[in-house]
Amino acid sequence: MQIDEFQQLMERLYGEADRERGVPATVAWLCEEVGELAQAVRKGTPEQQLHELGDVLAWVASLANQLGLSLEDAAERYVTDPPT
Amino acid sequence: MQIDEFQQLMERLYGEADRERGVPATVAWLCEEVGELAQAVRKGTPEQQLHELGDVLAWVASLANQLGLSLEDAAERYVTDPPT
To answer: How far is the alpha carbon of B75 from chain A, nearest alpha carbon, in Å?
Structure first.
């Protein structure tokens, strides 16, 4: 799946709810999911880890949608000018 | 860019350093970057927000690599069985 396809999917699934919730609450949700990911990594199964990785990706995409920014553009920097 | 292409790119660029650092330190880095993203969202420019979105994506991919998990698989759940 293309990164932008995934972002567009998040827009279709959650865009309206995202905009209603607003950016600060979305950041809070993202933090919540990162915590769940950290817990799954520490003491969860691979299935739980996979689930949380997906949730974190989804919330990053939701946030990018609300900011009007493209995750493809964000990812592209790692192709052209990766940090050392 | 495909999600798995991006993950493979992270493996090529950072896989060795990632494995040397280990999973807990990678989770700590991810949390650091999420904090930078939250700050950029709160008071940064769109360019800074884009930069931090990329960093968070990169660290999620690094973590997935170390866990031996596929971000494509993680994303796929949102195609087949998205949370409501």
So the answer is: 5
pTM, to two decimals: 0.98
Complex ipTM over 0.95 = yes
Residue B44 phi/psi, 5° resolution? -105, 180
Q: What are the tens digits of pLDDT across the range A18-41? A: 999 999 999 999 999 999 999 999
Q: Residue A2 phi/psi, 5° resolution? A: -70, 145
CA distances from B65 to A62, B9, B10, B12 (A): 23, 10, 8, 10
Residues recorded for chain B: 84
Residues 2-31 of A with CB under 8 A from B: 2-3, 6, 9-10, 13, 23-24, 27, 30-31
Quote the pLDDT of residue A84.
87
Nearest to A4 by CA among A81, A70, A76, A80: A70
